[in-house]
Amino acid sequence: MLSARALAVVLVGCLFPTCALAADPGRGEIGLDVGYADLVEEKGGGGPLAAVRGGYHFTSWFELEAEVAGISPDCPEGECSDLWMALINFVFNFHPTPSIVPYLIFGIGYTDFEQEPPAVVILEDQFEGQAVYQTAFGSRFFFGREKRTGFRVEVSETFFEDDHSPNAQIGIVWRLGSQP
């Protein structure tokens, strides 16, 4: 459990250097997402998802992004637990226009349940933290004169050691500086 928290702190810590790296105009990007994750019943079923992201554009087509996400399964109070994920994503951007930026994501990270005693369903024995992998595709739609603010739409698949979860997200994104 300590290693999961340490990894989450490191990944969240990646969000702050993004702001510092953004001194190079247009290289940084931050975002907030909400959506739905469809977990299997053994992990509590599907539920709302929230994520915070921060990334740095090394080139106009490649971005390294840190993402911290939480999922609250739809189940009776006290019968399941929240799922937390911390990921490093490799983002490949395409630029058909300055306003529309489709992308592909390949990510790797760590996930674990945050369980509040007394839980009726004990998940920690079955799910003691594990590696998680993510693939996604989506698009960012920027608006305004300098194209610094936009919204994103994303469909992803998250792979656990023994299962997978399809997800759908929407969010808002801000470029730190002008367009890369």
Summarize the structure.
This protein has one domain: Beta Barrel (Porin). Helices cover 11% and strands 53% of the residues. The protein is built from one helix and eight strands.
Question: How does this structure look, described?
Answer:
The protein has 180 residues and is mainly β. The chain has one domain (2-176): Beta Barrel (Porin), CATH 2.40.160.20. The chain has 1 helix and 8 strands. The protein has one helix at 2-21; strands at residues 28-37, 47-57, 62-71, 82-93, 100-114, 130-143, 149-159, 164-176. An 8-stranded antiparallel barrel has the order 1-2-3-4-5-6-7-8.
For the secondary structure, the number of strands is: 8
Q: What count of structural domains? A: 1
Mean pLDDT: 78
Radius of gyration: 17 Å
Order of helices and strands: HEEEEEEEE
How are strands sequenced across the largest beta sheet? 1-2-3-4-5-6-7-8
Percentage of residues in helical conformation: 10-25%
Number of helices: 1
